[in-house]
Write a structure and sequence with these properties.
heterotrimer; A mainly alpha; B alpha+beta; C mainly alpha; B: alpha+beta; six-stranded mixed beta sheet; five-stranded antiparallel beta sheet; 9 helices; 25% helix; C: mainly alpha
Chain lengths: 300, 358, 272
């Protein structure tokens, strides 16, 4: 290699000359995918919401009639149902998951990863199948009813098709999305800080309120946000477990697209729904730093 | 350095700014072919930035880098015939020792047999038995072994200049000393140009043909180790070399001066005349100071009280107080021991002191 | 941390109950899938047990089709999302560039988005583009949703990547392509493998996106949904169990790989 210097191939020079080009270049396939598969479809939905009722074409004169229909009819009821069910689900999951997350992060050792895998496996099974398991459990002569009849001689009819079962289904399906962020969050609470608090005379409840909860807040936020957003858009729980007892906004949207074949109205509903969730997500996402939660600030 | 010989690397008025911060400020020097050159400075002195420019991982804001006379400012690191041993060593954890050493040869497209022969030779040169180490996982090697692998890998690249970014800093003192000597031997036997960066002047003195001392992005002094030791250019260089006594003095005409001890000034005689009123530092090394017994004479004498003594092995180090808050360090052989708490008279010969810019 | 034995027992009991409730539906499905009767009722006698429905499912050309479609979607979506995720993880965690912080935030957006609405949006978009939806449009939909997840998984590994390894390779004459092939990809491989597993699994179980984007083709979860909402059919539990079984198998593979790679990265810590 000694002696004459090699000639510089011109190709590699652009990457050298423009700092940060390599980063932007690496991000571009993802950015293109999102432009094509996320941004464009959403714009499409928004635009479709302004098309006249029952059309399948995007090239009509825009109109506000769909939004008028929405405000004149009872769609706000399904929106309220969705928001209410989602909020209840978040609260119940916080109560159920915090002790478990605490145990997984601070007490269990090898068992914690077993629980992680046991729960994570469910993420990969379609939620319909898991909900169907509850149907078999709760239906007339199902696993629960049959057992009660056999052991206690109590006859029960179907336990399905009511609001508590819908909530059970949602809590069940979205449990992993609350549990895992909470585990990450609780892991961020340093043991020594808790011990110091105990040492300074704090009670168990005080330690929870003043140390555990505030320090694991990023996990609580992410978990609640994920569960809220996912469950507000839920269809299957209300349909499979709830019969037609409750109509959520997502199933309203779905039926506009399937039975009613009214795409513009469905789009207008979707747009409102998207706007609603975007507000929630942006409000919450702006308030914390994900890199901090991952515990991995990049080396500067 | 023989100035008439063409330098292999020339750094001409190089400046590097990061935003408003100037990391390297108008630095110029030359490295001769086959020289062991060391850049030394405390952390934040810009030595790492300078090194990163020399290997091509940063670009100078202004100035020129010339390799054998050709400007290489814009030449990417993979196209420069130079190679660096990283502080972290940067051994590839997913490859064996052998594959690590062969990496630059594989990149160049050398044949398998050729690569193996060369790796084998290099491992032997670095006292790593190829039979044992060739297939060993680098992650299982000890700190010293990893150093050798990193050096072997850099040598396999056959660079014109080898750069080192404090690779020995993570090792314990004994191993570091051994490897310093080995590095010097390898440099001598391979006749390669080595450019080393370190924060330890001691390390630089042991290995280097020439040393450049950096402070705040500027070269303070450049020269052979002996030269720097014998006549440091200023107080910074003197202090950087180790424990020295630097006395604040104000010249009072000819060779007379006053030493500002914080309390009452003490009259001293300087080794050379100085214009009255100039403020300077007077360097007196700990080993140049001695306790003066009654009747004995010295160029300067000062009454002191011995505060503390520490054993340095064959020597004893004393901390002595001239006035409260003004202390000096003295180093004497073990045989000439004095007791702590005692009053004594300290003296030094004029030839053993130097006047320095502060 | 100091935990008393009773505390530990209490937490263990709690975790046990949660897991039991969590797996209760799976238990129910298994029980139902083994029942001989056309209309399931519980409990049933042991002579009423049968594997008939599994055999039926295994022999049903219809089920074969759905499994085939699901696997095809999963394969394409996994390949695409891991390839895209690899580069975006480098942009996310490794390179310093101006848009990086914005990018880091935007990457997560599709995850926080209701899938059913995303599915619908894609349906309309494809309709607008005059594309007939089929299994491959569903694969695109899955990729949109899964690529952010693969990005995150590979990013975690990329954060741990020692930059000086790439610099050293470059210093020794390697081109960018050679660095990618010989250093970056091998070192990020464990992350890429787990990302692949995740991608396959998530695609395999996905229903909400497939529902609107598969067109004439139909993925397994869609078929199950259709059967479930239109009354009880004894083959449904059996197919469900098969679906769960495949997922568990894939998780075990994932678990082994993660264990293997963490052990490897632990031994590769520098030993000063």
């Amino acid at each position: 290699m000694s002696g004459a210097l090699p000639v510089i191939p011109p190709k590699s020079r652009l990457l050298e000359r423009v700092p940060g080009l390599i980063g932007a270049l690496s991000a571009s396939p993802f950015a293109l995918l999102m432009l094509f598969g996320f941004v464009a479809p959403l714009l499409c939905v928004v635009w479709f919401g302004f098309m006249p009722s029952k059309t399948f074409s995007l090239l009509q004169a825009p109109t506000l009639e769909n939004y008028e229909t929405i405000f004149n009819q009872t769609y706000f009821k399904s929106i309220l149902w969705s928001l209410g069910l989602a909020s209840v689900t978040v609260l119940i999951l916080l109560v159920i998951c915090f002790p478990l997350a605490f145990a997984m992060a601070k007490i269990f050792k090898g068992v914690a990863s077993f629980i992680t895998y046991a729960i994570a496996t469910s993420l990969f099974v379609s939620e319909n199948i898991r909900l169907f398991g509850w149907v078999i459990g709760f239906m007339k002569n199902g696993v629960v009813g049959g057992t009660l009849a056999k052991v206690f001689d109590v006859q029960v009819d179907s336990l399905l098709y009511n609001i508590p079962v819908i909530i059970l289904g949602m809590v069940y399906v979205y449990l992993p999305f609350m549990l895992f962020p909470l585990v990450l969050g609780v892991k961020m609470v340093p043991d020594q800080v808790r011990e110091a608090a105990f040492d300074l005379g704090a009670s168990r409840w005080q330690v929870f309120k003043k140390i555990d909860l505030p320090l694991s807040m990023p996990g609580v936020m992410i978990g609640s946000l994920l569960v809220f957003v996912l469950s507000v858009g839920a269809i299957s729980e209300a349909k499979i477990l709830g019969g037609q007892k409750v109509v959520t906004i997502a199933s309203d949207i779905e039926s506009e697209f399937t039975y009613a074949q009214n795409w513009p109205l469905g789009s207008a509903l979707s747009t409102m729904f998207i706007a609603l969730t975007t507000v929630v997500v942006f409000f919450a996402l702006g308030r914390f730093d994900l890199e901090k939660l991952l515990g991995k600030k990049p080396a500067e | 350095m023989d100035e008439s010989a063409a330098p292999i690397l020339e750094v001409a008025n190089v400046t590097k700014r990061f935003g408003k911060f100037t990391a390297v400020n108008d630095v110029s020097f030359k490295i001769a072919d086959g020289e062991f050159f060391t850049l030394v400075g405390p952390s934040g002195s810009g030595k790492t930035t300078l090194l990163r420019m020399l290997v091509g991982m940063e670009k100078p804001t202004t100035g020129e880098l010339r390799l054998r006379g050709k400007i290489i400012n814009d030449l990417a690191p993979n196209l420069r015939p130079t190679c660096m041993v990283f502080q972290s060593l940067a051994l590839f954890p997913h490859m064996t020792v052998g594959k690590n050493v062969e990496f630059p040869l594989a990149i160049r497209g050398a044949r398998e047999s050729e690569r193996r022969t060369r790796a084998w030779e290099l491992l032997k040169l670095l006292h790593l038995d190829p039979n044992r180490y060739y297939d060993k996982n680098v992650t299982q090697c000890s700190g010293g072994e990893r150093q050798r692998v990193a050096l072997a890998r850099a040598l396999a690249y056959d660079p014109e200049i080898l750069f080192f970014d404090e690779p020995l800093s993570a090792l314990d003192a004994r191993l570091r000393k051994t490897l310093q000597k080995e590095l010097k031997d390898i440099q001598r036997s391979t006749k390669k140009t080595f450019c080393y960066v370190t924060h330890s002047l001691e390390e630089a003195m042991v290995m280097s043909d020439r040393v450049a001392i950096l402070r705040s992005g500027v070269i303070e002094q450049i020269g052979q180790p002996d030269e720097i030791y014998a006549s440091p250019k200023n107080a910074f260089v003197a202090e950087f070399m180790g424990e020295v006594n630097l006395l604040d003095i104000i010249a009072s005409g000819d060779t007379a001066a006053l030493w500002d001890t914080g309390r009452k000034p003490i009259s001293l005689t300087l080794p050379a005349p100085l214009e009255a009123g100039t403020k300077r530092k007077l360097l007196v090394r700990p080993e140049s100071l001695r306790f003066v017994s009654p009747g004995e004479t010295a160029g300067n004498t000062v009454p002191v009280r011995i505060l503390n003594q520490f054993s340095l092995g064959s020597r004893i180090q004393y901390h002595v107080e001239v006035t409260p808050g003004c202390t000096l360090t003295v180093e004497r052989l073990r045989e000439e021991r004095s007791a702590a708490g005692a009053d004594a008279v300290l003296g030094w010969d004029l030839a053993d002191s130097q006047i320095l810019e502060s | 941390m100091i935990v008393t034995r009773t505390q530990k027992a209490g937490f263990s009991l709690y975790a046990g109950i949660v897991l039991l409730v969590f797996y209760f539906p799976v238990f129910c499905i298994i029980v139902a899938s083994l029942s001989k009767k056309r209309f399931f009722s519980f409990p049933y006698a042991s002579e009423e047990m049968t594997f008939k429905w599994y055999a039926d499912a295994a022999n049903s050309p219809q089920v074969h089709d759905f499994v085939g479609v699901s696997l095809r979607i999963a394969a394409v979506a996994a390949l695409a999302s891991v390839t895209i995720g690899f580069f975006s993880a480098l942009a996310y965690a490794r390179y310093r560039w101006r848009g990086r912080q914005t990018f880091q935030r935007l990457v997560l957006l599709p995850l926080f988005f209701p899938q059913s609405v995303l599915g619908l949006a894609l349906l309309m978009w494809f309709n607008f583009l005059n594309v007939t939806t089929a299994w491959w449009t569903a694969a695109i939909a899955h990729t949109v949703w899964i690529a952010p997840i693969t990005t995150l998984i590979i990013s975690i590994q990329a954060y741990g990547l020692d930059e000086s390894l790439e610099e050293a390779a470059r210093d020794m004459g390697a081109t960018r392509w050679q660095i990618l092939r010989k250093i970056t990809i091998p070192l990020l491989l464990p992350g890429m493998i787990s990302a692949t597993c995740f991608a396959v699994l998530l695609s395999w179980g996905n229903f909400a996106l497939s529902l609107f984007t598969t067109g004439a083709d139909s993925a397994l979860p869609e078929w199950l949904y259709a059967r479930m909402t239109s009354g009880y059919q004894p083959m449904v539990p059996a197919v469900g169990v098969i679906n769960v079984g495949v997922a568990i198998l894939l998780v075990i593979v994932l678990f082994t790989i993660v264990r293997w790679s963490t052990r490897k990265s632990r031994t590769s810590a520098p030993s000063h």
